[in-house]
Amino acid sequence: QKEVEQNSGPLSVPEGAIASLNCTYSDRGSQSFFWYRQYSGKSPELIMFIYSNGDKEDGRFTAQLNKASQYVSLLIRDSQPSDSATYLCAFYNTNAGKSTFGDGTTLTVKP
Amino acid sequence: DAGVTQSPTHLIKTRGQQVTLRCSPISGHKSVSWYQQVLGQGPQFIFQYYEKEERGRGNFPDRFSARQFPNYSSELNVNALLLGDSALYLCASSLERGPEETQYFGPGTRLLVL
What we know:
heterodimer, A: 111 residues, mainly beta, six-stranded mixed sheet, five-stranded antiparallel sheet, 11 strands, 57% strand, B: 114 residues, seven-stranded mixed sheet, four-stranded antiparallel sheet, 0% helix
């Protein structure tokens, strides 16, 4: 079992729709969770981080964390073609001193 | 302020050779982490350095080594290169280390081993 599993893509949504990206993790020592966006040929850029159970909103993005279910998600409202990218879920374990990334979900937003 | 910088941007080596990749963190950042990203996969953690000491190591063979200098820049060394080492090598820096620290990635070094 992979340490981080992301919903298989690719995911395609029409412009203006809500895109839902999901991630489960197996390491119960995980303390913080991150969503990165990676455009083709570029390095990852941070979208959001979340540490506590519940929802965290930042503009069009909402991250949800449920530590009991070992589940984290990212909702993108009013999706734009510029949101088309690969979205990477990651968690950080302080004791191990490392970040673990999923393999990403590729999102395409069609005009 | 300049972001994380890495050099070189691209590199071609042959099997068995050795390579050194360099990373300069954002000014003031004390932590540097290295990742390997193979096409179609997420970044795989190699090392984290903080205050010039190794603080975390991923599941990579001993052919991979790194160090951090007093100015917080870092080098990643890979010996006895294999074809499978071909990947994008990413460096990320953060102000401190810990669960609340945001990592900022550099543009990466794309290594091709022939």
